[in-house]
Amino acid sequence: MDGYLTATRSREMTPAQARPHHLRFVLMLVMTMSPFALSGSSYMLEFVRGLGVSYDPPATSGVRDILLDLYSFITDQLREKVRRLQSRYRGLPFFHLITDLWTERHGSGSYGSLVLRCIDPDNSAVAELHLGVAPFTGRHDSATIKAWAQRFLQRYGVRHEDVSSSTSDSGANVKKALTNLWPRWVPCAAHTMHLAVKASLGATGATGAAARRGHGGPSSVRATRGSRGNQATADLLSRGRKIANHFHKSPASVEKLNSVPFPGDDAPRKMVTETPGRWGSTYQSLVRFFTLMPRLIGFWDLDDLTAAQQERQLGRWDWEAVRHLIGVLQPAYEAGIAVQSSSATVADAFGLVCRLRRTIQLGVFPCPKAFDKPQAVGHEAIFDFLKADKGRTNVMELDGRLYKHENLSTTTARGSGGLREEAVAVVEILREELDRRFFHTSDDTKNWLSNDAVLAATLLTPGGAAMLSKAASRVGQDDPTGRARSAVMDTASHLALVEPTMPIQEQQLQMERNLCRTTLLGWDSDDADDAQVVTPLEAVERELDCFLATYVSADDAVSFWGSRSSEFPVLHLVALSLLGASGSSAASERDFSVAGLVLRKNRSRLLPEHVEMHCLVRFNTHLLPADLSSIPALSHGARLSTRSDMSAISVDTSAGGGSQGFSSDSGGDSVFDGSDSE
Fold first, then answer.
1. What is the DSSP pairing of strand 185-187 with strand 125-135?
2. Closest CA to 609 of 131, 135, 104
3. Which residue, 509, 511, 446, 441, is CA-closest to 477?
């Protein structure tokens, strides 16, 4: 490229010289989600000419072909990565599947996301293989979902026996399909926490329209919420939602709000809209309400307000309820955010669930004090305050600001260090919901102490055995460590089907050498010949006993096992295969966030196959070589074969089931639809 930047404008590029620039151009369009009209923009062409490069962007058909080349290259790279991991794990089930379904916002198309997660033994780090967002045709029943997932995995060479567990939200059909394929299924902890919080806030679990259809009118929605035992909180949040929506739709009100003086915190800010279906948005909305309280009070004191602006006010007791709700919701918000981390194991998720339950059970919560000026605003100011204060002041950070806080209890009377009734009701319902959704005694799918994927990963986490026993004791259930041990050994049993790896061979040779030096038998041996045979499964059991008796804590389980391959030559690989399990379906949610940006309103005519190619490229650009010219150009026959392979993932549907197909003769068969010109 440097040579072309200094060349004269009359110099012509050969097709071979232009190809890497075509690849960069298409990558730029995909990664910035720019309209294809950019390629013909006079400003764009003038900019390129100004560089002294005689370069013309590819035609529409050329963009489509180059995008297919990128897609094919990344697909091959993912297949190669799958093969490498299969050879490293040598028969152990090690992939942990994360999946979900999604319907596009500005159309009727359905898509499914599939992410494979594991621990890469070569670097002992969590690896996520994003296989993309693929079209899902047909009914959303368990049989169709099951067939779709199987075909998706087959495309990348993933065998059924490679998958150890799966994770999704609590959707019944997805859950049924996954448990039919692989018994070890983990419900998304973040989604489950969100449902528990919604119930504690008075949510009905149904949309307003559905409730009106079922009960005859708007009044029934209010009655149903009241039956959850927290009518006051539901009403307060409803009023807060109306206030936030008002500012969201009224730029004039936002301008007036930001004009209210507030020394020390005068940066313009907006309200955060609370969306019941979005994880953590209720807490974020309440926090923004609290940090904007002085401005909101000043706003409502203005003389030139309209009637709509005046009627949306919160009183003194409302503000007290807001700060108390912030205190009781913060633990659930923190746990929900932490469990979505891409590096968190399912054992980490279980630990967070236990910590959240313990926090809610104790019933003492730090709540921001009746509003005062924040102690510090912004990253640097917060560090300066903490450095100077040296822990003398009880403070908590909310929305990038430090506030004084006080500890309030659910058991203390209001007015003498106690929480308001709204907050107490949230705590009481949340206690019940957490036990019902995570430690259900009669439904194993809702009991993490009966989930083999959770138990095995937790047992192999240093200190995990003690946590399992303590958690079971606190919820009144039997100690699950025996079942956890059986789950580990069940996974390890697959090692007997393959040849030993080099560390295992070295261990066996050393044992044979030791036997050559002695004639003594073990004290519990009954047969001399049997004493000389050690199978991989027996080695796992011995190493597991040693691990449980020796290590009781560690900062990071994955790093711990990555550095213990010589000490536990067999068990470390089993541990890595189990620790890859995820406690959250956040990876699929992130995929759908990208898909939503690709399929925004003015690009809703993109063909499903092009949506799939866009998403796969965006998720896996790290697999592309630095020298893009090394990406081969597919032949016409290879491109047809690749398109056929993409179409094959679609599940045949019965009459009336619907299908979207991939016809390249469609009027919308362009990578960027002609309407995408803004």
1. unpaired
2. 135
3. 441
| Type of residue at 220 | S
Q: Quote the CA–CA distance of 386 and 400 in Å, as a whole number.
A: 14
Tokens of 55: 């370069």
pTM, entire model? 0.84
Q: H or E stretch including 550?
A: helix 536-550
Tokens of 516: 């050559």
- Give dist(CA 656, CA 41) in Å, integer: 44
Secondary structure tally for the chain: helices H, strands E: 28, 10
CA dist 369 and 382 (Å) reads 18
DSSP code string of 454-497: HHHHHHTSTTHHHHHHHHHHHHT----HHHHHHHHHHHHGGGGG
CA 492, 493, 499, 504 torsion-angle sign: positive
Q: Which residues pair with 98 in a beta bridge?
A: 115, 167
Banded pLDDT at 37 (limits 50, 70, 90): low
Determine contact, residues 603/208, Cβ cutoff 8 Å.
no
- CA 171, CA 185: separation in Å to the nearest integer? 12
Here the tokens at position 537 are 């499964």
- As a whole number of angstroms, the distance between CA 169 and CA 157 comes to 25
DSSP letter for 44, please: H
Mind listing the pLDDT tens digit for each residue in 453-495? 999 999 999 999 999 999 999 999 999 999 999 999 999 998 8
Cα(438)–Cα(144) distance, integer angstroms: 28
Strands, E, within 162-258: which ranges? Answer: 163-168, 185-187
Higher pLDDT: 251 or 311? It is 251
- For range 68-96, the mean pLDDT: 95
Residue 80 structure tokens: 């190669």
State the first-to-last Cα distance of the chain, in angstroms, to the nearest integer.
29
| Residues in contact with 150: Cβ distance below 8 Å, sequence separation at least 6, in sequence order | 160, 181
The mean pLDDT of 195-213, rounded to a whole number, is 66
SS3 96: strand
Q: Measuring CA to CA, which residue among 43, 45, 71, 70 is closest to residue 57? A: 45
Return the percentage of the chain with pLDDT > 90, whole number: 48
Which DSSP string do the residues of 134-148 spell out, in sequence order? Answer: EE--S--SHHHHHHH
What pLDDT score does 129 carry? Answer: 96
CA distances from 481 to 116, 449, 487 (A): 28, 9, 10
Q: Provide mean pLDDT across the span 51-60.
A: 73
**Residue 362's pLDDT band (boundaries 50, 70, 90)?**
very high
How many residues comprise the chain?
678
Q: Does residue 672 register a pLDDT over 50? A: no
Query: Which residue in the block uniquely carries the two structure tokens 């240093």?
Result: 462
- The yes-or-no verdict on residue 223 having pLDDT over 90 is no
Q: Which residues contact 668 (CB under 8 A, 6 or more apart)?
A: 605, 606, 607
Alpha helices in 363-459 (DSSP H): 379-389, 421-438, 452-459
**Strands 110-120, 125-135: parallel, antiparallel or unpaired by DSSP?**
antiparallel
Cross-strand partners of 80: none
What pLDDT shows up at residue 110? Answer: 86
Question: For residue 106, which of 588, 586, 597, 594 has the smallest C-alpha distance?
Answer: 597
Residue 181: how many other CB atoms lie within 10 Å: 17
pLDDT for 98 = 96
Long-range contacts: 393-397, Cβ < 8 Å, 24+? 394/366, 396/366, 396/368
Continuous segment of H or E residues that includes residue 309: helix 307-310
pLDDT at 222 over 50: no
Asked which of 47-61, 82-96, 131-145, 549-563 is least confident by mean pLDDT, the reply is 47-61
Q: Taking the CB of residue 340, how many other CB atoms lie within 10 A of it?
A: 23
